[in-house]
Amino acid sequence: VVAGAAFSEDGPPCLVLDPEALSEAADTGSRPTRPVVRPSPPPVLVIDDSLTTRMLERSILESAGYKVDLAVSAEDALEKAADRSYGLFIVDVEMPGMNGYEFVALTRADPRFKAIPAILVTSLSSPEDRRRGREAGACAYVVKSEFDQKVMLSLIAELIGEGSTHG
């Protein structure tokens, strides 16, 4: 009986009903089936020492419907991950203290975090840098100069989407 949805002026979506389907359902006495409600994906932890990058990635992810937490360093991220379950780590490589390669390698070795996929996002683009990312255990390596929002969101959906597994 739902034909679609539209956004009201103040933002929230409103369902648009199909009058014919409503009439048919009323005439037959049948009850419309309830849509399958899928659980929301677990939150994503964005780890980057750059405020601008953290806010940009948060905006992209939240507009796609993800819940997002932010960490200013790898050390901050480890504290947050100890307190909350995440579905994905998005990690900058070049950070003061522990770098992104070290963070990913450490989380791959820790049974609490081993199953959480990690994407490295960096300006480093050499084959050696990419190899280090793979060796650390990152599921993907995204170079900032080649960043494509649609590709990134597709990758995230694949890594934490329904039915995906990571090992």
What does this structure look like?
It is a single chain. The chain has 167 residues and is α/β, with parallel strands linked by helices. It is 39% helix and 20% strand. It has helices spanning 19-28, 51-63, 74-83, 100-109, 127-136, 149-160; strands spanning 2-7, 13-17, 44-47, 68-71, 88-92, 118-122, 140-143. The strands form two sheets. Strands 4-3-5-6-7 form a five-stranded parallel β-sheet, with helices on both faces. It has a two-stranded antiparallel sheet with strand order 1-2. The protein starts with a strand and ends in a 7-residue tail after the last helix.
Beta content comes to: 15-25%
Q: Average pLDDT across residues?
A: 86
Question: Strand order within the widest sheet?
Answer: 4-3-5-6-7
Order of helices and strands: EEHEHEHEHEHEH
Report the biggest beta sheet as strand number plus sense, adding barrel if it closes: 5 strands, parallel
Radius of gyration: 20 Å
Helix content: 25-40%
Low-confidence parts: 162-167
> How many β-strand stretches?
7
Shape: elongated
Number of helices: 6
Q: CA-to-CA gap between the ends?
A: 41 Å
